[in-house]
Amino acid sequence: MSDRSLTPELLMAAYSAGVFPMAETRDDPDVFWVDPQDRGILPLDGFHMSRSLARHMRRREHRATLDVGFDAILDGCADREETWINETIRSLMIELHTMGHAHGFGLWRDDQLVGGMYGLALGSVFFGESMFSRERDSSKMVLARAVDHLRRSGFQLFDTQFITPHLASLGAIEIPRTTYRARLERALNSPADIHAIALETDPQAVIQRITQTS
């Protein structure tokens, strides 16, 4: 599909139907639709908080943010040798962010962005698109903050699209397409507001809540 026929509204409709776009390379202007037979999700009550990750978070060396520097988070996710984030997807995600649908979690050391994740929120579903890490454990810390915030904000489903060994180590699982579609429908019909509460600033509070629910 060319960038001329893809709109933010069409993109949201596709996610609501259980499919999502990817590009072959960053230089390919076209996108194709993906509908995996087995879908990756991260249960919001099942994040695996390792002792080493908890120790790292307790050092309080970083500042976590929500929807600060969205473009920089998006570019951080695309800053790798091979990426499916082409200019078409980047432009659409920035539009969706302006519309209030796409969101970015960031992790900062002083004024430097060292980790981040972005995704799309519809109903009580968060479609996690991509994340990146520039320091040890920074993507894990971002994901821990995101899971804690989404659960506290009333979200029911965290869609990771695919599952990787990295995500599996943090609690992500695969479910069949039919199971995913049923959960998706329920969550889309249940409202949630990602800005209903402030992002937690105390890493110890995040650790405590996650370890109590997982």
CATH superfamily: Leucyl/phenylalanyl-tRNA-protein transferase, C-terminal domain
Q: Helix proportion of residues, in percent?
A: 25-40%
By secondary-structure content and strand pairing, the structural class works out as alpha+beta
CATH topology label: Aminopeptidase
Q: How many strand elements?
A: 9
Strand arrangement within the widest β-sheet reads 4-5-6-7-8-3-9
Which architecture does the CATH hierarchy give at level 2?
3-Layer(aba) Sandwich
Q: How do the SSEs run, as a string of H and E?
A: HEEEHEHHEEEHEHEHH
CATH class: Alpha Beta
Total discrete domains: 1
Q: Kindly, what is the distance between the CA atoms of the first and last residues, rounded to a whole number of angstroms?
A: 41 Å
If helices are DSSP runs of H or I spanning 4 or more residues, what is the number of helices?
8
Rg, rounded, reads 16 Å
- Average pLDDT figure: 94
How much of the sequence is in beta strands? 15-25%
Unreliable segments (pLDDT under 50, ≥5 consecutive)?
none
Oligomeric form of this entry? single chain
Largest sheet: 7 strands, mixed
Question: What would you call the shape?
Answer: globular
